Amino acid sequence: xxxxxxxFCILMLILVSRSxxxxxxxxxxxxxxEELGMSYLPEDSTADAVILFDIGAISPEAFxxxxxxxxxxKRGTSFANISIPFYKIEKIEDLEGCTxxxxxxxxxxxxxxxxxxxxxxxxxxxxxxLPGVEEGCVFEYRYRKSNNIFLEPWYFQNxxxxxxxxxxxxxxxxxxxxxxxxxxxxxxxxNPRSEKTEPQTAxxxxxKVYTWVLENVPPIKPEPYVTCIxxxxxxIYFEYSGYxxxxxxxxxxxxxxxxxxxxxxxxxxxxxxxxECDTTKIKEKSSxxxxxxxxxxxxxxxxYNFVLKDIHWNEERGVYRIYEKDFKKILTSRxxxxxxxxxxxxxxxxxxxxxxxxxxxxxxxxxxxxxxxxGRIQFNHLIVRATIDGRYWxxxxxxxxxxxxMLPEKDVVDYGLLLKVNESGLIKITPVNDYSLEYITTKAxxxxxxGLACTTTVDFHGYIGIYAREKIEKDGKNEYVKQELLxxxxxxxxxxxxxxxxxxxxxxxxxxxSFSASSFASLGGEVAYVNPTLFMALESNxxxxxxxxxxxxFPYTFTRxxxxxxxxxxxxxxxxxxxxxxxxxxxxxxxxxxxxxxxxIKCHRQLTINLLTFPVAQYRMLRNFFQEVVSADQLVITxxxxxx
Amino acid sequence: MIKKYxxxxxxxxVNHTCYIFPCSLLIWFFLVGGNFxxxxxxxxxxxxxxxxxxxxxxxxxxxxxxxxxxxxxxxxHRIFTVYNQNGTKHGDVYxxxxxxxxxxxxxxxxxxxxxxSLKKLKKEEIKESSLFSRYQLYxxxxxxxxxxxxxxxxxxxxxxYEIDYKSLFFCRDWYPQMDIPVRHSVYVLSLPKDFGFKMxxxxxxxxxxxxxxxxxxxxxxxxxxxxPFKEEQDMPPEKDCLISVAFAPDRFKVGNYSGSTESWNALxxxxxxxxxxxxxxxxxxxxxxRGLVKDLTRDKDKVKVLxxxxxxxxxxxxxxxxxxxxQPREAESVASTCYGDCKDLSTLFIAMLRSNxxxxxxxxxxxxxxxxxxxxxxxxxxxxxxxFVPLESESLWLDCTCSYCPFGELPWQDEGCQVLVVRDDSSxxxxxxxxxxxxxxxxxxxxxxLGSDGSLEIKGYLGATGNFESYYREFLxxxxxxxxxxxxxxxxxxxxxxxxxxxxxxxxxxxxxxPFAVGFTARLIQYPTKSGxxxxxxxxxxSRVDAEDIPKEKVRKYPVNNQYAYTTEDEVILDFPENLTxxxxxxxxxxxxxxxxxxxxxxxxxxxxxxxxxxxxTQRLIQPEGFEEYKTFLGKIYQADHSFVVLTKTE
Lengths: 644, 651
What we know:
The structure holds two protein chains of two kinds.
Chain A: H1 3-17, H2 20-23, H3 33-37, E1 49-58, E2 62-71, E3 81-87, E4 91-100, E5 106-108, E6 114-117, E7 123-129, E8 138-146, E9 154-155, E10 161-172, E11 174-175, E12 179-190, E13 200-203, E14 207-217, E15 235-247, E16 252-257, H4 261-273, H5 279-290, H6 296-310, E17 312-313, H7 324-328, H8 330-333, E18 335-336, H9 338-351, E19 355-361, E20 381-388, E21 391-395, E22 415-418, E23 425-428, E24 435-446, E25 452-461, H10 462-475, H11 477-485, E26 492-499, E27 509-517, E28 527-530, E29 552-553, E30 557-567, E31 572-576, E32 581-585, E33 588-597, E34 600-609, E35 613-614, H12 619-633, E36 637-641
Parallel strand pairs in A: 1-10, 17-18, 24-30
Antiparallel strand pairs in A: 1-2, 2-8, 3-7, 4-5, 4-8, 6-7, 9-15, 10-14, 11-12, 12-15, 13-14, 15-16, 19-20, 19-22, 20-21, 22-23, 24-25, 25-27, 26-27, 28-36, 29-35, 30-34, 31-36, 32-33, 33-34
Helix pairs in contact in A: 5-9, 6-9, 10-11
Chain B: H1 2-11, H2 17-35, H3 47-53, E1 55-68, E2 71-82, E3 92-97, E4 101-111, E5 117-120, E6 127-130, E7 136-139, E8 142-147, E9 155-165, E10 182-192, E11 197-202, E12 209-213, E13 216-226, H4 238-241, E14 244-249, E15 251-254, E16 257-260, H5 264-275, H6 283-292, H7 299-313, E17 315-316, E18 318-320, H8 331-337, E19 339-340, H9 342-354, E20 361-365, E21 384-390, E22 395-398, E23 418-421, E24 428-431, E25 441-450, E26 456-464, H10 466-477, H11 481-492, E27 498-505, E28 516-525, E29 529-531, E30 534-537, E31 560-561, E32 566-575, E33 580-584, E34 589-593, E35 596-605, E36 608-617, E37 621-622, H12 627-641, E38 645-649
Parallel strand pairs in B: 1-10, 7-18, 17-19, 25-32
Antiparallel strand pairs in B: 1-2, 2-9, 3-8, 4-5, 4-9, 6-8, 10-13, 11-14, 12-13, 15-16, 20-21, 20-23, 21-22, 23-24, 25-26, 26-28, 27-28, 29-30, 30-38, 31-37, 32-36, 33-38, 34-35, 35-36
Helix pairs in contact in B: 7-9, 8-9
């Protein structure tokens, strides 16, 4: 019996062994009148569609899925365009799909209307549009995927409400006359939503079956300022963690399972250490880079700067896809994945006598790690920890604008897995230089015709500076100034633009612009209003929603300061200066102050956010904070004609 | 340059046309790759531009050789000098291919600037994958892709390839400009002696050179020192602005279908042949569609019901297989699957009308964002299909892919386009109607009350007609309930520090039979700005011209493209507390310009302020010579939209 048939039989066995009343309607083609008759979802009357059930079953070699959806609105019909990704080695078989309308019609998927989109790296997508889909209909499809090469996570939570999501893991061992052997797997839940996470289990002749069921799962909807939505999505993840082998003939029983971070770290470290490289070339290069340098910090910086500037990142992380033949020639090819680049950095440092170890992390956009659930699949990136003069430096040499010790903001996470044989384990990541500052100073002269002439200097530090460098490198300084700096100044035309060198990454980056803006202020009447905050004023609250589900992530902490010195036109004087404003919350601070000195007005504006993540309970506070900021930013100086 | 000229002279004596190019290519690789230093003469590209753009195209050679009525080969050869990371994208090359086009003989190499080879492209580095746009569920088009770069700069990238055309229907226009400087661009069109074809040049004043060689014609365009193509804000479609040469054979064949471009009528006949057998409906479906309108007597009403059936029941799904990119599916198949692309839905619609004895025709159209059709150049320039229904008293233009277009209205993309109405007897080119500023309107009416705490309670609605209506309906009906609410919040809170959305009403969004309107009540928190004892209140809550709306260029090369003429009308009736008086109001404005008009009115009655604003843009395209005046016009609107009514507390 093929593995798939066994899988489905087991699945059916489980289904049948449960209450039929509970499971009636799961059989393909048997759509109940209640399902067809539904006109809205009681849990959410605005829902466009609902997943009636989503049933999956997986064994290490095969995967099967059966999904049924009820459509309420025209928008809901778009859920009937289906895409199923699969690797080249995998095969999608026994695909069936049907639509059932309220007036009793049935439309079935024509195999000729099923297509395969071919991807480049062996990842293809099977696509089809279920026919006859209209408001009020129910559609379903099922398929199996054989030669399954990954134990994919199962997402209980979807874009729309899910009435029932059921997932079964079938583990079969191999059994000979004198021996038995089975693979061991670990799993973990993300956001179990207080549901039971222990599976129902059943024994089969050659293994075990585990089933998880969740019901009435609300949809998950992305929100702005969320770095990784999967951190909040109810899902279960699996990982191969060991084996159990018994030989009755030899009376031996061997169980190996990785159950803690030390064991995981050790096994991964062994893999990385086994990747060969050209040690002669490494040694030569390391010597060349450290020639004449006496301190570890100077050596480390020299090696880091070489890797940073000379080895190009091909945009792949490649943490579990290292090809030895590529790694061996990285010094000549001058290109590699992030893992290859940082492994090269590690080996060069070790060759120079610097204590350095690899550290696995989960980047911010990949999700937070569950410390209580040791496993390899939680990580997607490799960085290096160098120990220099008793201090730890975390290094990632993939982006040429990040100086020594500064991690890309995606790497700024709480924990990583240190790979160091018997010292492996979770460690705290402590980056340095992760603070950003943008400081704009402007000398402006308001002309009698209402035009403005300005000289502006922008000083960048930290991540803000890196973004500016990247943007200017990509689009040119003229475009950068137009789109990023002068976008709030009407009719602004730059005259001259200069910047400090883009690649002097150990120096702050600055930009100097002189520009003019015609019709900046209307000075025709007796009273005029001028807002001297030219660049950083917020026109509207970035936290628009009245409520929020998830915590708020900022890409980095920062301070933004704008100082303007405005010279008034002849014939005008200040009638009213805005009240000085300030506001402070845990993690945020704002102030805006004014000072009049003769025909000059000075305005200082400063906004600081020094918390990377605000918990959702603080959303209202954060929203109100920005309300204060926007209110203050809209305050204007009132000018009157002299003598009025 | 001299080297190349002599080189051409040399190879022109060597062989038949179709062998010249590959021979020349091989010789070129040998000469340049091995023993010669690349010298390009005095540089027309500044160091700063090299740094900013990252690369210069030293040579772009394309030769399109027509071998027979239905077979051609395009050979492409390019050389770039890459100065930094910005320029590496030119080594990332995608070559589409289909049943009718194949991409082959791909060679690529990176070298140092003194000719030393760094890396050659290996066969296994050329990847193949499916090619499809985001609008397509599936297409059988594929692409070959390679990415060849070096890591030390500067370097020279050189590649060549061939595209084999199994149908001349697909011969492509020539666009010599790039987003980087191009030192030398050459296009050679090689044709058999009596081969009928035509050409059309755009934005190009140079005439080609014609040669005759062994019975073949050669037409050569040779351009030097092309500056990079620079985009401007709100510019017309690129294809209208780029230098280009369009080519079309007089005759072509796609699959089993032959066609001609000798006239628009001839081209229409070809499409007609493709589509003629596709209007078939089963008797049961014919009966169904007759039944839908059986109680109606006027043809226009019948058309409306059937059109709304398509809008409601069908979904847009594009699947392109071979000829199906141009030939619609059978109407019966579209009806049973309830999905199709633009020509499929149009075909079904026409079949539905025909089953009710109403004449209708497919219309081939090039949508606005793809550029204007060259009316003097019959050829397949189209990317979309709509329907034309000539009734006795009027004509209707209907786009079956627009789920929320009011009956009888076209989406803006289809307006003012030269289109080919395909009729059995004679196909004709006509222009689709253009909506007026009055027809495309956003109007808002708000009742507001200013509280003593500085918050503004507002209640009102936003209505829309014409293109605005289709846009809002399409957008809101594709959004979840949560997304609709977010949108409302962004609209209301656009200029307020904070707001609370109290209620909203989207009931009229999905029903096409009622005018579009969304209602709301909200509170704008801390809305008026304080200045001492004064409150500065901007009564324009929604419709301001902001700084980013004014094109930034000092001087324009290309027109400003507004997409369509429109009007926005806003009225705010604001009641304020008795302890406040109006100290100042902005002056009333009535500005007229060749591009539109702008009026504002402020009326004070006791404790009530009535603000009215009407902005009209009458021109879709603002020509470069009028840009200065247009910018001044927008500048005045900006100032008016950012003006305040000053309210002062009375003692």
